[in-house]
Each structure stands twice: as structure tokens, then as C-alpha cells.
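Review form for a predicted model. The reviewer records the input and the model, then writes brief findings.
Reviewer: anonymous (R2)
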Amino acid sequence: MKNELHPVLSLRLFTDRKCFGPGIAELLHRVDEHHSLRAAAQSMEMAYSKAWKITKNAEEGLGVKLLASSTGGKGGGGAELTDEARQFLAAYERCVEKLGAYGSELIAQEFGFYNKRNA
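Model under review:
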């Protein structure tokens, strides 16, 4: 059995509070897929109230609107990502990818002795 060390990293961004991380990133992807905050929350087995709170906290912390919502009615309501949300999400994902690559490189450099021993 290989027992190779590898990093498991996650990125959380703060202003005066935690405002963006893997949870809100996933929620935004689901909103983009389902065109609804409620449906996105359901698909993550999350209460709508929690999804709403997470989104509002992120918007307040970042100072940008992440969702453009329309109220229900005959055609039903919905939500879609704002341009700022798309830009922020893309930048976040690029950072996560680069962080993961750097983390793997750093582990290989610093713990190569361990991984060679257990190969």
C-alpha cells in the first residue's frame, strides 16, 4: 500500500469576516446550474435560509452583489450570477488550482524523503 503524503488544501478569503470559500463557490456553481438559490440549496441538502445567509454574508463582506434575483409569480422566480460573481468565482478557482499545484510541489520538496521511503 502506498502511503504517500499529499496536501489537502482549501482556500477561504476574509475581509473583516470570512466571506468566500469552497461552500459559497459550490453554491454559486449550483445557482448557475439551477437558476435558483432555493434549488441550488436543495441540491446541496442545505436549508434555503442557510444558503441565503451565506450568500448575503459573502455579498456584504466582499461589497459586491453575487446574485441577481427575480421574484416568483406566473413564470416563477429565479436567480443568476452577476458579472462580479462570475469574475470572483473564476479568480477564486484559478487561485485554488495554483495553490494546489504549489502545495503538491512544496510537499514533494520538503517531504520527499518520506515519500521515497514509503514507495
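Findings: The domain at 14-114 is CATH 1.10.10.10 (Arc Repressor Mutant, subunit A).
Further findings: The longest helix spans residues 83-117.
Recommendation: see findings above.
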